Write the structure tokens for this entry.
Amino acid sequence: MVGAMNDASLTDAIARMFRGDALDERVEQTLEDALREVYDTDRVSSEASAEALLERFGETAIPDGPGDIADYYRYLASNVVPHGINVASPRFIGHMTAGLPSFAAPIVKLLTVLNQNVVKMETSKVFTFHERQTIAMLHRLVYARDEAFYEEHAQNSESTLGMLVSGGTLGNIASLWCARNRALPAAETQGLGAALASRSARRAVVVAPALVHYSVLKAVGILGLGQNGLLRVPVDVRGHTDLDALRSTLVRCRDEGDVVVAVLGIAGATETGSVDRLDGIADVAAEHGVHFHVDAAWGGPVLFSRRHRDLLRGIERADSVTIDAHKQLYLPVGLGLALFREPDLCRAIELEADYIIRRGSWDLGRRALEGSRPGTSLVLHAGLHILGRRGYELLVDEGVRKIRWMADAIRARPELELLAEPTLNILVYRYLPKALRERAGSAPGTLSDADHERIDQVNRTIQERQRDAAQGFISRTTLRSTRYGSDRPIVCLRSVVANPLTTERDIAAVLDEQLEIASALEGEPR
Amino acid sequence: MVGAMNDASLTDAIARMFRGDALDERVEQTLEDALREVYDTDRVSSEASAEALLERFGETAIPDGPGDIADYYRYLASNVVPHGINVASPRFIGHMTAGLPSFAAPIVKLLTVLNQNVVKMETSKVFTFHERQTIAMLHRLVYARDEAFYEEHAQNSESTLGMLVSGGTLGNIASLWCARNRALPAAETQGLGAALASRSARRAVVVAPALVHYSVLKAVGILGLGQNGLLRVPVDVRGHTDLDALRSTLVRCRDEGDVVVAVLGIAGATETGSVDRLDGIADVAAEHGVHFHVDAAWGGPVLFSRRHRDLLRGIERADSVTIDAHKQLYLPVGLGLALFREPDLCRAIELEADYIIRRGSWDLGRRALEGSRPGTSLVLHAGLHILGRRGYELLVDEGVRKIRWMADAIRARPELELLAEPTLNILVYRYLPKALRERAGSAPGTLSDADHERIDQVNRTIQERQRDAAQGFISRTTLRSTRYGSDRPIVCLRSVVANPLTTERDIAAVLDEQLEIASALEGEPR
């Protein structure tokens, strides 16, 4: 801390911070050095436990300040940076967050200095057109409309091809907000109660696959439909929505007078990576004249892969699509999109305000879920130009190739059970204790509840011990539809292979560490 | 572009990007140089018109790539950076976005490289505790509970003192989401229609001052209350909510069986900077047992000022408070907070999901509006430690001092009319054409509709010409409650003085440029 200051020297210290004189390259180097230490190892984190770290973050008084920048950077370098998660470690293969290509950080730094606010042209100017262009590029990836369509709509202030949002959760909320208002046009002005009453409808619902991401549960809650208004349709062991069940759900809704706001399909389920047969769901949605939304937060970029893009056939028939740029577009956390097939869908949520949003203006704040927003299209545009179609294709193809290698590696280890064939680059499996291994293989129906609970517990322990050792990382989840039936939740280990620097050797090392942990566990008295 | 590549060299090029070998300091320097060019002048933007820029952003095909990073940075440096808005110009005094202290950008760059995701401990570890600590510091600024309270709740996984969100819009939505579920506990599960029906209520409403920010209109729309469910209470010429009108609105709601979700107060109205008498609104909310929310997106940091904090007396009685860190905490766009007086308010929106959010965990995703989020508490914590209480106090006090100087400067120029005495650092005024000046001053009631339309038009033109010349900037808005009555909307010029580098000379220059534009206009044939 700089210590008590008189008014004049405080004024001067603040002015120096805003002019930039207070920061030299040597000070910045503190942070660069801290990063280098993290990335010099493949460890996933420090050895400090959560409980130990917690103790260090109890102080809640705001200091008088001003503080010295160099001192503060040293604090970050020693107390914070080493104790985060090294998501760029090639052995961190358990969540959807990974390391980034190196071109991203300098662009984000540039953006931070520029501090544009795209809610309005007057605080962003060229960034408004840049964002519209970037959204149109992604729209084209998904919908592939013709050149004339993009010439007409990309920069037309009355058209909205999509919305940049802080992530897929807001992408799903924004899409379903539009869908709700499309199904019940009175909802936005008169409220949901009045809108339902005027249609003599009992309730409004969203119909989604059982594997739907929890953000959709959040969406129906926020939008007033209620969590009970999320009707879940069963999926088969491959994670595909049961189309007959979907049809009969929609018929039941019609018969009971429920307003169906949207039917959902999933392109890349969070738990298993499975991809719905989108064409089939699109058919059903069309039969019933219902808004079709695809949550492609994870799987959207598979469209770059000539080898695998056919998996997403039918996505171009979706009325709205969520894609996360911070997932398989390998860009910083905090960047998602909702894309809209028709440029006028967003009219359902348009707003104006005298001082900020005027009719006919290009201001992006006119049709948006958020208000003030940074010009993050810059980093998305950079990804599309620097990695490009071929770069993203390679990332997708390599992820699939490696996960298949991992599936083989699991099959080759009798201690492990593959719970589903992978579709994209996500894999679910579990460890089977020695005593139950044979029965699980040959007569899964003979496993008792106690047996299953024992297996679940072993897998929980393996996952936690590996995580705490921080040499490698796999996540865990609970599956509800496996070869053990749909009424038997199964705790499983879940791998996401997204880091292009992850090698087969890394994958094998992570698996083998789990076997070592399991072997130690089995040797332990119980 | 690098040109067509075979698979091996493509693989290598991608790996280099992810290892960081593809980027050297010389390449990064391209972006630094581009910034220097922007900041070497006080201009607000380039001379390029919006229409001219638009033409350059029509290409929507995604290139095959991969592209060269240095080429791409040069593209940004020449085609994008110069044509944004220099929000750090001391003569950009028209919006709530300004330049930042220099310590922010290197921290954001660090965060980008670390790419933490605070939705879950497993992708953020220490960042979870860091965020909780930072939120508790802001909670303490607003609510000033005792040390024991913060010891109990700051790091308690069952307590939620606040939520970091991408901005004030989400802060207001999140707060009103909690309030809706508190007023109608069945809404989250059974939906708003059923929740209202079970209470035999006609509708659910939010009662807010007429100056309420448009994000609240968005909130009532999204939450299913409907825009008609936002009941606006008149304000006086100082922008204070009419407490008698507020009381009678609440009585009418009770008599008509409307469920009141929340009563709002404003601390720093977007248009005028006025601050409600929060204590008075808190009294009324308490009388009716209604959730009290304060939108302090702009004004919250005034609590740092010993001289002015009394303006916000009563804010500590609010059930929820929105504050934007990217406004008067001078941090990058994309960072707001909702704060909650009681640590259990957020239970109303809690969610769990097997693979991501487990009961009893510290995971921040359990009670949040967004899903994946970056570790932006780092930059907020930095502001609180580097600028500190005294730094923020100085920024607040200087803004108020300069806006009062500006009010005097306007009074000293007979061509200009001050439309309200400033409360914080926002000011509204307008230009009066020579022919109407005297009557506007002595007999405002004699101005006809045509006179008013003429004044409005002159002010629109002044604002647009100054903006397009890009040597200085003032925004404009429409006021509905002035000395001309509450049924006569008045177009006005609006200044926000937030940049500590803005001097009295800058303010005078911006005003004088407007007078020059006006004088040229008056000389023009009409």
